[in-house]
Amino acid sequence: MKHSLLNQALQFVIVLLLACAMMISCNNNKKSSPTQTAKVYVANEEDGTISVIDLQNNSTATIDLTDSTGVKYDPHNVQVAPDGKTVWASGVPEDSTQQEQLIVIDQKTGAIKNRISLGKNLDLVHVVLDNESKYAFVSANKGNSVIQVDATTYKVVRTFPLGKENGPHGMRYAHGKLYVANMGSKSMSVVTVADGQVTNVPMGSMAAQVAVTRDDKYIFVSLIDNKEVVRYDVKTKQITRIPLPEGAQGPIQLYATPDTKLLYVADQGGVMERPVSDKVYVIDIATSKVINTITTGQKAHGVVVSKDGTTVYVTNSIDNTVSVIDVATQKVTATIPVGKGPNGISYWFETGGMP
Length: 355
Prior knowledge:
It contains one helix and 30 strands. With 355 residues, it is mainly β. It is globular and about 50 Å long. The strands form seven sheets. The chain has a five-stranded antiparallel beta sheet, with no helix packed on it. Strands 4, 5, 6, 7 and 8 form a five-stranded antiparallel beta sheet that branches. The chain has one domain: 7 Propeller (Methylamine Dehydrogenase, Chain H), CATH 2.130.10.
C-alpha cells in the first residue's frame, strides 16, 4: 500500500514538472515572437509604385499604381489612415493630359479601391487624414491650396486656398487643424478645418515639412535653405530656431517619437546646387539641441517612427532603400531595398496607422 502511494506521488510530481516545463516553453515562445504585425509603406516616385515592407515576415511586396489604360502615376507621398483600413497616395500622371489623382488602397488586400481625380497642373504632394479617418487632405504645390476629400464617398468636400505662390508641400493634421509647410511663401499655414480660416506664420526660409508632437505642445518645421529646424510652440506661438550641424545640406521630412523626446530629421540636400546628404539628425525636443548624427543612405528624405517608438524608418531616394534605425542604440540595424526614388513613408500596425 505504501509503495502504491509512493508511486502515485512520484507520478504526480513528474506530471507537475512536465506541465511547468511546457508553460515555461510557451512563455519563452511568446516573448521571442513579435507582439503584433506591422508594415511600412513607401512611395516610389520614380517608378510609380508603392513598396509594402512586411516587418513580421521580412518580405517586400509591390503595388503598381498604373491604371487600366496603362497610364503610370508617380506617388510623392503615402499615408496609412489612422484606422488602419486604407492607405492613401498622391498620384501625378506621367501623361500630362490626364488628371492627377488621390489613390486609395485597401490595406488588407493591397488592391486599389478608388482613384479620385482632382485636376491638372496641381502637383499633388502630401496627403494626411484626420484622427477619425473621415477626411483626407492633399496639398497642391502648384495649385497653392489644400483639397479636402470625404474618405467614405471619395468626393471633394472643399478646397482651402493658401495664397498665390505659397507653394504648399508637407503637412500634418492635429485636433481640427492642418499645419502646412509653404516652400514658396517661406511660411507655415495653420488651417482651421471647421471654418476654413487660414493663418500664415512667417518662417523666413523655404519650409518643406512639419512634424507634430504627440503631447500637442510643438510643431516642428524643416527649413531647407537656412539648414535649420523651427520649433513652434502651439500655446504661446513662440518660435525657437534650431541650427543643424556644419555640413548639413538641407532638411526635408522629420518625425517625433511618440514619447515626445526625440525628433528625427532627414537632411536630404540636393537643392540650391548643394550635394545630396546621407545624414539624419537627432534633436532632443526638451533642449532643442542636435544630439546625434546618423549616416543612412544617399538623399535621405522620408521619416516615420514605429508605434512603440523603438524604430525609425528613413527613405534614401538615390540608393532606392529604407534605412532602419534603432532608437536605443542610435544605429542603423538594416537596409531594405525598395522601388526607384523612394520618398514618402508611412507605418501601419494591427489597429491603425501612425499619423
